[in-house]
């Protein structure tokens, strides 16, 4: 309808112009038709975005979802080096929907004061995040499922979440209640779905919104955010801990009846880091006891429950893609499948959970299919959740925002733009243990405090590294090319000059560490393009883009003088005063740094 209106007005304008200038009407009509055709072929693409909750990549969950493999891996591209920037639901989702690192959203936790929906609103993001931007760009937007934590039956209307033409959100405290969920549609009151499985409920809602989206004239952005395979939380079982604080009791996810018999012999992959004989890692991880057989068996049960619960999501994706196939819009629709953070079970002796910087927690599945996206392709580029909003902008033809901390990812072969070899990983607060046997935290709680750290994950030509600095000023350095399961911390406990220094990347390890530390110093407080091109801050005008280039011994002196990443104390939020040096030196004795380097 709109297109015809456009053509009609173009014809009228062209006729007027042609008459005025004595042009041939035939030619004018020809150009009008080609304008109309190009208008049609450049109609902005639609998006279907599916985001699961706590789905791992490293524990192989994707292999158990045949429809997702068929529709997404075989028909699209698998981004095998895709990372989240904070391994916890709410901060990770806020980073995803704003395109910013958590240190630039300052939504760093799942609940107030440092996180959750109220913090998202306080920080002004309810008027300034992806769905709002997409509506402004002409999109119809729909969302069903979990949006944020601490978005509750008591605060959902103060204010309502902006940016959606249709929404039906899961609300706390019933978000993770598989058999008694509460959803809240548009501006209507919450509805309890007691006795129905949450995946059944969301499937109906998602199919309804997809129908609405397909009927509309405008391009659409539909998000479906099921909670599987997150742990089940029964709100009626909230108990009280030592203090007044409520302790949330998390149990294995509950699959649909029809999936409960599946995978009876499947166990958590027994990788080298699974319940290892030797403890390793930062002190609190090193202090975990080896799991006995009951705990290991429970981990396997928990793992199977997750795979079973994911079957509902697998069928949901099948229904959504099948409906798109039946429509005439599949050819102009990008489908994106991912999760908010990863998950570990038993690795490094950890009970079920996330919040760590290990591969299991920070790597998540990412599949993209759509116009121009290679089918059955595996992409190696390093990509992150803060790259997704810039990617959607680029695909939709919306100009890049300067407050994006990420950059569009290469979904189609011609996709240009700066790439990066690093991922900035940040965390503030406690590690949380889930399931039975999770009361191994301080004082028998399910929490381990001082889980505040900054890290950089680096994948480049000839290196595959993870470097982290903790609020306790402990350090970790893993060379994943020789130690893929992160069992050997290479960070030296002390370096004495009379000893022969171990080598890393062909240099004494202290030189490599200096570069990694300076890189992390930039990344932990970067904004916008600094987050994408951190070496330009460290070595302005030197055309350094990689660790390999920065390792040149010419720069040793300059790097040796940079302040180190450190913490003054362990805090639970992003408190600048607790976080040591904020920025690298850029001048020395008033002389610009690049003269020195
Ligand atoms: C982040 O938020 C906390 C409150 O949650 C506040 O105390 C802190 O100053 C904020 N950090 C920055 C850098 O604005
Ligand atoms: C969706 O919402 C936007 C912004 O309010 C509005 O302009 C658009 O017309 C709506 N689309 C439909 C189909 O109602
Ligand atoms: C289910 O949730 C509702 C609130 O939405 C509550 O009133 C009811 O007691 C719950 N049912 C069970 C079995 O926990
Ligand atoms: C195994 O370890 C758990 C958690 O520490 C403990 O509760 C349980 O009693 C242990 N079981 C056996 C058989 O030792
Ligand atoms: C957490 O770190 C602080 C230092 O900031 C220390 O005083 C405290 O003992 C640590 N707590 C635990 C449980 O390790």
From TrEMBL:
Gene3D superfamilies assigned to the protein according to its UniProt record, in alphabetical order: Alkaline Phosphatase, subunit A (3.40.720.10)
Any one GO molecular function term: arylsulfatase activity
InterPro entries per the UniProt record, alphabetical: Alkaline_phosphatase_core_sf (IPR017850), Arylsulfatase (IPR012083), Sulfatase_CS (IPR024607), Sulfatase_N (IPR000917)
UniProt catalytic activity: an aryl sulfate + H2O = a phenol + sulfate + H(+)
Record bears the keyword NAD: no
Post-translational modification: The conversion to 3-oxoalanine (also known as C-formylglycine, FGly), of a serine or cysteine residue in prokaryotes and of a cysteine residue in eukaryotes, is critical for catalytic activity.
Statement: the UniProt record of this protein carries the keyword tRNA-binding: no
Residue numbers carrying 3-oxoalanine (Cys): 89
One biological process term in Gene Ontology: phenol-containing compound metabolic process
Sulfatase N-terminal domain segment(s): 45-398
E.C. number: 3.1.6.1
Signal peptide: 1-16
Keyword tags: Glycoprotein, Hydrolase, Signal
Family: Belongs to the sulfatase family.
UniProt-recorded name of the protein: Arylsulfatase
Phylogenetic lineage: Eukaryota, Fungi, Dikarya, Ascomycota, Pezizomycotina
């Amino acid at each position: 309808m709109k297109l015809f209106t456009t053509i009609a007005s173009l014809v009228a304008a062209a006729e007027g112009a042609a008459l005025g200038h004595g042009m041939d009407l035939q030619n004018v009509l020809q150009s009008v038709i080609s304008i109309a055709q190009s208008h049609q072929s450049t109609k902005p693409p639609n998006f279907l975005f599916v985001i699961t909750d706590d789905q791992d990549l490293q524990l192989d969950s994707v292999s158990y979802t045949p429809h997702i493999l068929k529709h997404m891996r075989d028909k699209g591209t698998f981004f095998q080096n895709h990372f989240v920037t904070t391994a916890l639901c709410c901060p990770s989702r806020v980073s995803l929907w704003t395109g910013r690192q958590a240190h630039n959203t300052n939504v760093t936790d799942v609940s107030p004061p440092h996180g959750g929906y109220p913090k998202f609103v306080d920080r002004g993001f309810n008027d300034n995040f992806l769905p709002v931007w997409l509506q402004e760009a002409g999109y119809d937007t729909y969302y069903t499922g979990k949006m944020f934590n601490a978005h509750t039956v008591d605060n959902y209307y103060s204010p309502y979440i902006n940016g959606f033409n249709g929404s039906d959100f899961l609300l706390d405290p019933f978000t993770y209640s598989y058999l008694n969920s509460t959803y809240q549609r548009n501006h209507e009151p919450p509805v309890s779905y007691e006795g129905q499985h949450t995946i059944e409920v969301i499937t109906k809602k998602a199919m309804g919104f997809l129908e609405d989206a397909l009927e509309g004239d405008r391009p659409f952005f539909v998000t479906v955010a099921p909670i599987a395979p997150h742990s089940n939380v029964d709100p009626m079982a909230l108990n009280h801990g030592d203090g007044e604080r409520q302790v949330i009791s998390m149990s294995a996810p509950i699959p649909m009846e029809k999936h409960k018999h599946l995978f009876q012999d499947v166990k958590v992959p027994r990788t080298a880091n699974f319940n290892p004989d030797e403890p390793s890692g930062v002190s609190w991880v090193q202090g975990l006891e080896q799991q006995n057989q009951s705990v290991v068996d429970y981990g396997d049960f928990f793992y199977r429950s997750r795979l079973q619960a994911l079957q509902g999501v697998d069928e949901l994706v099948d229904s959504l893609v099948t409906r798109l196939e039946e429509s005439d819009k599949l050819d102009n629709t990008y489908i994106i499948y991912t999760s908010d953070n990863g998950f570990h079970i038993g690795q490094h002796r950890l009970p079920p959970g996330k919040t760590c910087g290990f591969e299991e927690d920070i790597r998540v599945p990412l599949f993209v299919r759509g116009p121009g996206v290679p089918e059955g392709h595996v992409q190696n580029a390093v990509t992150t959740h803060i790259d997704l909003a810039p990617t959607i902008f680029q695909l939709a033809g919306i100009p890049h925002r300067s407050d994006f901390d990420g950059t569009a990812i290469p979904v189609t072969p011609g996709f240009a733009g700066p790439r990066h070899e690093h991922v900035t990983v940040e965390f503030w607060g406690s590690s949380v243990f889930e399931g039975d046997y999770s009361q191994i935290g301080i004082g028998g709680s399910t929490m381990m405090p001082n889980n505040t750290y900054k890290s950089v994950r680096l994948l480049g030509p000839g290196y595959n590294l993870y470097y982290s600095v903790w609020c306790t000023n402990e350090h970790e350095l893993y060379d994943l090319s020789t130690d893929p399961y992160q069992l050997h911390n290479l960070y030296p406990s002390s370096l004495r000059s009379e000893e022969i220094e171990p080598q890393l990347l062909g240099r004494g390890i202290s030189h490599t560490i200096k570069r990694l530390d300076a890189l992390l110093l930039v990344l932990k407080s970067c904004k916008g393009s600094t987050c994408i091109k951190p070496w330009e801050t460290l070595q302005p005008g030197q055309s350094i883009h990689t660790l390999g280039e920065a390792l040149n011994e010419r720069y040793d002196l300059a790097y040796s003088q940079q302040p180190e990443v450190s913490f003054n104390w362990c805090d639970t939020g992003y408190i600048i005063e607790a976080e040591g040096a904020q920025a690298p030196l850029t001048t020395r004795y008033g002389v610009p740094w690049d003269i020195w380097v």
